Amino acid sequence: MERLRGLMGRRHEDDPLDYVRDLTKALLEGKLIGEEVLFRDAVGEIYSTLRKEVLSKTSDQDYERLLRAYELAVILRYLVQDGVKTSREILEELLKTL
């Protein structure tokens, strides 16, 4: 994870949703796909960051949008863990949702 954060040049505490956007864009642009470990780390980071954000929001008006992004991250994580490599459409939807 530290290597991934080093490549991204920032930590997720700065602005968690911005960090997820940057990770998603990097995946879509193919910057992290070359190494499977980095790809899986990025997907895991997207998932855990969105999960933390969803669980911390209880009455925010953006809750539904955030929940939808989290749901997409759950699907993406599932697909990546099971070795399905057709996740581009989910990444694009995630980026639009954010």
List keywords for this structure.
98 residues; mainly alpha; 71% helix; 0% strand; globular
Shape category? globular
Q: Describe the sheet with the most strands.
A: none
- The proportion of residues forming helix, as a percent range, comes to over 70%
Low-confidence stretches: none
- Beta strand count: 0
How far apart lie the N and C ends?
A: 22 Å
Distinct helical segment count: 5
Radius of gyration: 13 Å
Q: Please give the domain count.
A: 1
Please report which band the strand proportion falls in: under 5%, 5-15%, 15-25%, 25-35%, 35-45% or over 45%: under 5%
Q: Structural class of the helices, strands and pairings?
A: mainly alpha
- What is the ordering of alpha helices and beta strands? HHHHH
**Mean pLDDT score:** 76
Task: Produce the secondary structure layout.
Layout: H1 2-8, H2 16-28, H3 36-56, H4 63-81, H5 88-97
Helix pairs in contact: 2-3, 2-5, 3-4, 4-5
Short description:
Helix content is 71%, strand content 0%. The chain is mostly helical. It has one domain.
Account of the 3D structure:
By secondary structure, the chain is an all-alpha fold. It has one domain. Helices cover 71% and strands 0% of the residues. It is built from five helices and no strands. Helix 4 (63-81) packs antiparallel against helix 5. It starts with a helix and ends with a helix.
